[in-house]
Amino acid sequence: MLTLIGEAQVTKESPGALKRNATEAIRLNDSYAAVHYLELYVKEKPKDTKMYYELAHQYRLSRNYKKAYNSYKYISEVNLSKFPKSLFYQAEMGVRLGKYEESKTQYYEFRDIYKGEKDEREWRKMAKDKAEAIEATSTQRNKEPEYTLKHLERDINKAYIEQSPIYIDEYTMVYVALRADSLISFKGKEGQNLPQRKFYVAINRNGKWSFEGELKFDSFFDTYEISSGSIAPDGNRFIVSACKPDENRKMRCLLYELRKSGEDWINPIELPKEVNALGASNTQPTIANGSKAYQEVLYFVSERKDGKGGNDIWYSIYDARKNTYREARNAGMKINTSHDELSPFYDNESGKLYFSSEGHPGLGGLDVFYTEGAKSKWEEPTNIGTPINSSFDELFFTSFPNGIDGWFTSNRPGGVALENETCCDDLYAFKKMDSVQVILRGRTFIDKKITSDVLIELFYFNSDGEKVFNKRIKSDKLGNYKIRLEPGRMYSVVATYEDAFTETQEIKISDGFSETNLTWDANLLPFGDKAYVIENINYEFNKDQLTNEAKHSIDKFLLPILVNNPAIKVELGSHTDNKGTSAYNMHLSQKRSESIVKYLLSRGISESRLIAKGYGESKPIAPNENEDGTDNPDGRAKNRRTEIKVIGKVEVMEED
């Protein structure tokens, strides 16, 4: 977090006064002011290696990597025995400057010399991990770029920081900025109005982004520093991170919710303790659709005692029916490390979570990673690679719904700098090259009649073969729908409508998929009083045990109906032809129906939802004999059938 820092004082001060001022600036987390006083101090006291070492730290914290590298290098050369960690930090700053091989050697050297200290185990492991990360990311550093980048216009990028871009539409962006052009004294006059980070609006006109002004926002936040925000998928709720310094001048952030009123965001409400943990900073929100229509998942960043270390990503489930949040939980060890994980962005279109991390193997500093999953169950994160990632800090990755364009922030050289070339975060736009968009289109019907507002839900299968919710839409007034698919996935598309059987279609999109348009029309059958035949549930002659073929058919056709329609109670009717006596056929059909129920129970369907009913030969749907009295095998085959009929509903228990 960048702090507001001090102006150079023109009056000459004694070394003692300079040291006191530097110490006070450090206490106030004001790295730039600390650098100013320490630079003056070490000129007067060049042999004070302790304060020179502190100056190196403040260069690092103010992201002046070149000066930090040179300062740590000096300390490691003149007094490594007293300051052994200077070699570790020299390697860390070397990575920022692209000195990968040199830094790898220094990490291993540090690991060899750093012994006999209380924190030996922790620091030697960090050095080993960082050296191995340099080796592991060599491919990432040299691979062909998949994106083109553009540094946003000077009308947007100013001297301080720009961060937290929020997509409104392809022509409108909301972002956070501290729009000031000079350093601000940490010894500012009492009552002085200092510039603050606020939300601003930018407009894309003819391919160029221009500053539009401050976002219309509730005056409640006039005394707060705005950190970041996320707009809910329905567009009506805005979760904002607003911050104030505590007594130690460390920023503490809380999450607030605002509601849309015309063009304004009003009525800020602090999120409950289930989200805003007491004594912790809670910031950088992103909102994902939940697996149920009334749920959302709020992901955010917080540094808590029960985390994995540093800043972690957490999540809380929001229930729109009750307007409540569940107790926040850690997003898990696949994402969170002992270092910082920051700026999560959940792409509701692709179902991917993007975040920045210092702990996963990266190119240096904070790198952008992405993963698939939800809540605390995720795939192994993937480094997004160059040119988005660099040896510097990349944060606040944000993707457009088209999956091609987006923004991120970086302090890489070439931006608009206030103090040094890597001091400050600027906004960059990216565009994915050679991107193939796969679009699934179709129409929705109920009993062959075009129907609107049919719910289309998209799931994908993870590496364990489990279904993971991706997104949901409804068909329009003409029954049309359109949904984007990602290459390299197996999908399950589920169409649902009240009082109708769910329709499901599986679609595989390989990595090299070249078709851009796919079609699937969903024709749902209404419940009503009608019984529907389930095909291919066959038995051996005179037997009631299910064959493997019958079990496969149940798994493929009948089980999904019951899983996707959890509130229905059904009758499973078994029918025979007229071979044998009526009593025998009635008994056989009852046993066959019961065998289906038994199998469904083994597959997790509740007994309260299933009724077994044998009809024997009493309800033929085709003649068993031809008109001339000869046998009719085709008719008998049609009569030997299993049917499903909805006979009621049951109460569904909500999952945690």
UniProtKB/TrEMBL annotation:
Keywords: Cell outer membrane, Membrane. Residues 527-650 form the OmpA-like domain. It is found in: Cell outer membrane. One of its GO terms (cellular component) is cell outer membrane. Residues 633-643 have a biased composition (Basic and acidic residues). Gene3D superfamilies: OmpA-like domain (3.30.1330.60), Tetratricopeptide repeat domain (1.25.40.10). Its main location: membrane. Pfam families: OmpA. Residues 616-643 are annotated as: Disordered. InterPro entries: Bact_OuterMem_StrucFunc, OMP_bac, OmpA-like, OmpA-like_sf, TPR-like_helical_dom_sf. It comes from the Bacteria. This is OmpA family protein. It comes from Acidiluteibacter ferrifornacis.
